[in-house]
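Chapter review: from sequence to fold.
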Amino acid sequence: MKAVVITTPGDPQVLQVQEVENPEIGDDEVLIRVEAAAINQADTLQRKGLHPPPKGGSPYPGLECSGIIEAVGKAVVRWKVGDQVCALLSGGGYAEKVAAPAGLVLPVPSGVSLKDAAGIPEVACTVWSSVFMMSQLSAGETFLVHGGSSGIGIFAIQIAKHIGARVFVTAGNEEKLAVCKDLGADVCINYKTEDFVARVKEETGGKGVDVILDNIGGAYFQRNIDSLNVDGRLFIIGFQGGTVAEVNLSGLLARRLTVQAAGLRNRSLENKAVIVSEVEKNVWPAIMAGKVKTVVYKYFPLTDAAEAHLLMESGKHFGKILLIP
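The token string follows.
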């Protein structure tokens, strides 16, 4: 089969399509013929040598895909050859075929094309696990997501609105903020021209928001703490602004704040399967009801993976970028 290989750690040009061995499936796995794979920020880190695949994982990038099941392991009960599915992967999505654990596979939700379903698993599992399962965002609360026009942001806006939260977003230009507003964001903040802490305080009567989903890390740590309400929860899923911060801890104690962080890729298979099951139960009905839409910015052929990474790193896109084998 053809797969995108990271020939050496480096810039996007190191991504090359090569002929490689077909993946072998274990008893609890399925073989998917890939219809599309989505690009995630973590893939660009892996390409630079900063985010290696977990032990035993595929060396090829790609954390989510959609496609048709071509073979099933002998212990697999739910899935059969010919099923149209999407899957959460620990790698290997940038290829014509990929092996996926049966517990991390989801049916393509009705109303979504097989191709576009590739952009759902990683964002749905990241947002549902961090914002809902761990931070317990609930109806009537306020929620701030940084990078509102990213794949994560676009999904988070819609699912948070669906459950009845008031949604705040930050983004870097008016076009991206307009996209967020169209998807239901209540308060849209241009972080280049406005102080998001001041705006959050102004919009919440000085209280702050209840939950923040943050992909910036160090550079925003103090400001995120300053933006939280009593019993507020900060959840960190990325470090685009670095991993080091100096922070005044008094606010954590005074306002009983919680700070958590997690990724998806290095969780145990059992833990990921629980998240996938919760996503199917809680998120899939919202997608099928049209309350949460997939937003795809651009499709690239597998051979243009380098160009797709350049777009991802430029930050000019909104929504998902997909690769088509």
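Two observations follow directly from the output. The mean pLDDT is 97. Residues 121-134 form the longest helix (14 residues).
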